[in-house]
Amino acid sequence: MTPGSDLTVVRRAGRIAALQASLALAAVLLVVGAVIFLVDRQVQKQQITDQLTSVTATVDDTTDPPPGMQLVVRDLAGKVTASAEGLPTTELLGRPAGFSDVRVGGAANRVLVADKPHGRVVALLSLDSYAASRRRLLLALGAAELAGILASIGVVVLLTRRSLRPLTEALALQRRFVADASHELRAPLTLLHTRIQLLSRHFGDRDAHQAKEQIEALASDTRMLGEVIEDLLASASMASSGVPRVRVDVAALAEGIR
């Protein structure tokens, strides 16, 4: 695999990982939003039940009903009174005792019918305010979900790029190492090839002295090639286990170069 294809594979893997992480975070946010909505709906349902139960337990007449609520009362004598005109009192009083839903004037209402010692009581609670509250909650959750998903995508992409940066740098160092190693090995191999050709010619001429010189030179070049390989292995070991500390006399080294 070429270095360019290595980087392509790494970048593709990073994009896939970022996409998977973003989808996972989006799924978590959606689940959290759904749980919040269901809990709020359950709380509203309990509030409606408590409010209707409290009103029907204490109501004596239909005057001054609580806000958003209408009352219908039928006493033991059969007299029917209602807190507002236009209510379907007959239909409401004919319902079985308990909770039910009804639409009055196009508006949804929760109804509680209760039989009391002084007669039958019907309490109607408008659900418009609760429906509006749920719509506002849905809008708020939707905006929060969208912002959270976009923010999570940005954070995941940024973290993925940062996490892949050391790998791309390592690949760049690997390419540089391979190029340097190829350059260092090319010269000794060229010398070895040349000396082998010369040695072959001298053997053909039966010149033992020159053949011996070429063999010694060949051995020297072989040692040089071995030193290059040892240096490469040493550099690899330094990368994995740390740089060895060796004292070097720079003055003596400079004198030897003169």
CATH class of the domain at 165-245: Mainly Alpha
Number of helices: 5
| CATH fold group of the domain at 165-245 | Helix Hairpins
CATH superfamily of the domain at 165-245: Signal transduction histidine kinase, dimerisation/phosphotransfer (DHp) domain
- Strand element count: 5
Notes on the protein architecture:
The structure is a single chain. Strands 2-1-5-4-3 form a five-stranded antiparallel sheet. The protein has a domain of 81 residues: Helix Hairpins (Orthogonal Bundle), CATH 1.10.287.130. The chain has five helices and five strands. Helix 1 runs antiparallel to helix 3 and helix 3 packs antiparallel against helix 4. The chain is α+β, with helices and mostly antiparallel strands and 258 residues long. A hairpin with a 2-residue loop joins strand 3 and strand 4. The protein is rod-shaped. About 2% of the residues have low confidence.
Describe the structure concisely for a colleague.
The protein is α+β, with helices and mostly antiparallel strands and 258 residues long. It has helices at residues 3-58, 89-93, 128-205, 208-241, 250-257, and strands at 69-75, 80-82, 98-104, 107-116, 119-126. It has a domain at 165-245: Helix Hairpins (Orthogonal Bundle), CATH 1.10.287.130.
